[in-house]
From TrEMBL:
Domain VOC residue range list: 2-125
Species assigned in the record: Streptomyces cylindrosporus
UniProt-recorded name of the protein: VOC family protein
Protein keywords: Metal-binding
PANTHER family for the chain: METHYLMALONYL-COA EPIMERASE, RING-CLEAVING DIOXYGENASE-RELATED
Length: 130
């Protein structure tokens, strides 16, 4: 078994596309800015995030037609230099909810939301201190 991607169901596909491609700087697979599907990949690693139009999936699973409420996901992205990356994305319109700040002695984090309210955690892993 292999994890292919984490897929987020979104109502405003175009706004979410711009957030993941332009604000966070992830690479879109096909350039389908209006959807109904797009996969995004970071510059390194094999994990991916995909967006799926919620209305399209509601045709398959009717229960998805209900309005999404609450935090249903937390997308985690690891970056090498959290402070620099946060400066870059806030310059492109991202609004940080918290951080950058230590979470543990091994990790610093910052949090923000995408246009649908999905939480995004940015992590910088630190070397063990001792």
């Amino acid at each position: 078994m292999e994890l292919a991607q984490v897929r987020l169901l979104v109502s405003d596909f175009a706004a979410c596309y711009r957030f993941y491609a332009e604000t966070l700087g992830l690479k879109p697979q096909s350039g389908a800015t209006e959807g109904p599907y797009e996969k995004f990949s970071p510059a390194t690693g094999s994990a991916g995030i995909a967006l799926q139009d919620r209305a399209m999936m509601a045709e398959v699973l009717g229960e998805l037609g209900d309005t999404a409420t609450g935090h249903r996901s937390l997308v985690v992205l690891r970056v090498d230099d959290l402070d620099t990356y946060c400066e870059q994305i806030t310059g492109r319109g991202a609004i940080l909810l918290q951080g950058p700040a230590p979470m543990t002695d091994r990790m610093r984090v910052a949090h923000l939301k995408d246009p649908e309210g999905n939480l995004v955690e940015l992590q910088e892993w630190l070397l063990l201190r001792g």
